[in-house]
Request: fold
Amino acid sequence: MNRELVSRALSGLDDRHISDTMCFSPGVMRDAPERTVHMKKKRILTVALAAALLLALGVTAYAVSGIVRSTGTHAMPKAANYASLSDLPVVEKDVGYPVTVPERFSNGCRFAGLRVEGEAVFGENDEPVKEYYSVLVTYSRPGAADRCLSISPVLELPGGAEAPEPSERRIIGGVAVDLSRDHYKLVPEGYEKTEADREMEAAGHYYISFVDAEEITERDYAFAGFVLNSANYMLMDMDADDSSPDDLAQMAAELIAAANGE
Amino acid sequence: MTDEEIIDLFFERSEQAISALAQSHGGPVRRVALNILGDPEDAEECVNDTWLAAWNSIPPARPSPLRTYVCKIARNLAAKRYHADRAQKRNSRYDVALDELAACLPDRDGVEDTVAARELAGIIDGFLDTLPREDKFLFMRRYWFADPLPEIAEAAGMSYSAAAVRLHRVRKKLKKILLKEGVPV
Reply:
């Protein structure tokens, strides 16, 4: 292929595209002007990491269907960052379903910001089969890694979906909460599983996820997943240790109580 | 100093015009030159050539916005120099960006008589108008400014993977548009 032709074509692009690109600062780019708020850079990166993890999980969860191929972020007009819970009515209106987002938890986690993200389920030819909005909330606490809460609508997917097996299920406030602590190895396309990978996968709670990245990343994650008011809630600890499942279960209990008006 | 004040200096043929231009817009001009050429010395020469080109074209030109104008001059000078020198010096970063896009654009043999670079630019212009702002930002930063993907992802507030996946989808859309326009891909 001819690089020079491509380069010459790019050089001939209209000035408006160059100006538009230079006018976008990250905050301005992600948010509609009338409701622009600025999340701190660290928060944005935390949310991005959580989103990347959810993408990897999504591919794992839906790959079994013959029709649905993957889930992922999808450009949609109401994607935006919010720094205050006072914006929650706007968020609920935009995403189209009610969400419960506590301001603080008893373990010291406090609301630090949220992002409305456009997502889609993609079909065999990468066409969006279903579009929806998810909400990613970041909670911070002094001296500890941030926690994230992902909220998304319960989807009726053609062919169904297969979620990873939880480590434990607890009934909390009448809601089934699935708890997991898993090791994830995020690997680039083309990675060949080692014998050790296969053995650890067979042993359970060890997942190889193929992502569009150049380097291998390994982390321990803990999750507490449950369905509340027709939405999937997933609390995540992206730097998990032995206490993480219990801690997330307590956070789930407080969130469910808040949703029930207790 | 505002762009209008800088342009007034050019119209007065004041030597301060160049230093004021460099102070206000030197950063992005230097970045796009370095992204394409990959060599600091070559990039600095390109930046100086850009100031000279601006001096020679203003007046009569009164560009607005000024930053877009000088960045475009710098990019075109850098790209021309890059292709002229490419047998000696290769900048793998720019090659990688071009190759990504080249995969969904026509082969030279198929395009020379049907779609010239200018016509191709026109199609890409129209395509960019249809994209959401985020996707357009990613496309332009990657292929026009030749920025590395990790930097673009950070600027966009998204993960590397999400940016890469979204760019992949944008390229696929572009390929469909080219096919629709009758361009042999």
About this structure: The longest helix of chain B spans residues 16-37. Chain B touches chain A through 58 residues (CB under 8 Å). Chain B has a mean pLDDT of 83. The radius of gyration of chain B is 18 Å.
